[in-house]
Amino acid sequence: MRAILEAQPRFGDLVFGRRGLLDWAKHKKLLDAKLQLEHWVLHDLRRTAATRMVDLGILPHAVEAVLNHYGHRSGVAGVYNRSLYAAEKAQALARWAEHVMAVVVSGSGKSNTDRISRLYQAMKSTATVVPLKQA
After folding, report:
1. Phi and psi at residue 87, in whole multiples of 5°?
2. CA angle 125, 130, 132 (to 5 degrees)
3. In the chain, what are the domain boundaries?
4. Please, are residues 133 and 47 in contact by the beta-carbon 8 Å criterion?
5. For the whole model, what pTM was predicted?
6. Across-strand partners of 11?
7. Over the stretch 75-114, which tens digit does the pLDDT of each residue have?
8. Rounded to whole angstroms, what are the CA distances from 26 to 31, 37, 126?
9. Which of 45, 53, 93, 120 could form a disulfide with 58, with the two C-beta atoms 3.0–4.6 Å apart?
């Protein structure tokens, strides 16, 4: 995964444009047209990743840090614990990337669209995540 990202054109530290990926709705419409999947929302990806990371054994506080949520820091911990959990986030994201790549690569010989569709179906069938909106 790292090699793929490092091979992409850079805009400073960013990979997806000069200011990051800004028009998520536009890109989701392009994905919808190409993949022809049943109704889903972008937040489903975030929720599924969070659920599956915990299922992979990643500790909940590391998952919350990846999501930039710090709900585990309430009370005294919220006042005194200022850790960014950088190492834990890096480990969690590396583990998640390995999981995603294992699902995608298991469909070798298929088109990218087929692989992405297979990934979506695998995540949907193994995760305990329900989309926010139903078609």
Report:
1. -65, -40
2. 145
3. 1-36, 37-130
4. no
5. 0.62
6. 14
7. 777 778 888 889 999 999 999 988 888 877 775 555 555 6
8. 9, 16, 28
9. 53
